[in-house]
Input
Amino acid sequence: MTADTGAARPGDGPGRRPGGPDGHPREAPRTAGTPGTGPGRGHGGPGPGAPGAAPAAHRASPAGRRTRAGAPPRRPRRLLPPGRRAAGGESTTAHDLAVRHRLLLTLSALLTLSLFLSYEGVHGDANPLRTSSAPAVLSIDTALYALGQAQRDAGAAAPTSDFQKQISVAAQSLAAAAGDDVGGTAGRQALQTVAGLITVYAVKVQQAQLQPAGSMLREAYLSYATSVLTDRGSGIQARLKALQRQERDAVRQQTSFGPLLWLGWTVTLLLALALAAALVETQLFLRRRFRRRYNRGLLAAGALLAAGTAATLLFTVWTHQGMAHTRDLLDRELTSGPLITGAGRNTASYLADTGFRASAAVWILIGGVLLMALAETGLRRHIDDYRFRPR
Output
C-alpha cells in the first residue's frame, strides 16, 4: 500500500497544512484581519507562524512601546503640559493647584473674619458715642452751667425771669440726658432724683424772694436752697458731677484703641499681605505652568483685596481721629454757654458720617465672599483639567 500523502510530516511547522497532492507543504489561507497581517500588507505577508513574523506578545503596544511576553498592552496615557514631575515620573500639577486653591480660600476666610472683628471694634463704639455718650456729657455740662447762673440770680430782691429761665434750661437738659440713657438704670434714677431736688431748690428760692430783704426767714430759705444745690455729699451739683465723671469714663472707653484692637489690626494686615503674596505667587505659577500671561479671576481678587483693605483702613483712621478729638474736647471743663455750644457743634462735625462708615461692616462680609468666589473662579478650570486623586 502507498503511504497517505495527507498525513502530517515531521518537518511541518505550525500554520502549515499537511502536504498537497504534489508532496509539498501548502500554506494556510490568510484573510484580512488575521493576526499577523499588518497595515498596508496583502495576503502575501508572513503569517503568525512564518519564520519572519514576530509573536503577538512582542508586537508594539498602542502607546508605541513593547511589552513583555504575555503582558496585556498598556492603556494610552493622557499627555500633560510640561511641568514639574514627582519621583515616580507623574506630573504634580494637580497637587500644586489643589494646595494653592486651599491656601487662597483659607486666607480669604481668615482675613474676612479678622477684618470684620477689627473694624467692628472701632466703629461699633462710634455710633453710641455720637448718639448717646457725647450728647449726655454736653447735657450735664449745660445743666451745671444753668444751675450756676440760677444761683447767681437767686439773691435778687424779687423773682426774676432769668432765674426761671435757667431752671427750665437745667430741667430740659436733664431730660435730654435721661433720654441719652446716662449710666443705664442707675443713671436714670439719679437723674430723677436730681430733677426732684431742682424743683425743691426753685421753690425755696422763690419763697426767699417773696420775703422782705434782710429778714431771717429770707436768709433761712436761701440757706436751705443753697445747701440743696451745693452740698458736697448729696447736693444737686455733686450728683451731676458724679454722673458727668461716669459719662466721661464711658467716652474714654469708647474712644480708646486698646491692646486687643492693636492685635486685631496687626493680624489683619499680616493676613492681607499673606493673601496678596499668595495671589501673586499663584498668578506666576499659572503663567509658568500653563503659558497664560494673566488670570482674570486672580487679578480681580487682587484688585478687590487692595481696594477693600485700603478703604477699611481709611475709614478706620477717620473714625478714630474723630473719636479722639471728641474725647479731648469733652475732657475739658466747659464753664460758659458759648463753650458748650461750640463743643456741641464741633462734636457733631467730628463724628459726622461715622454711622455710614459703621454700616460698611456688612460689606466686609460681602467682599470676603466675593473674594473667595473670584479665587475659586480663577483656579476651577485648571483644577477640573487636573483632578487630584489622593492615593
In short: Strands lie at 16-17, 26-27.
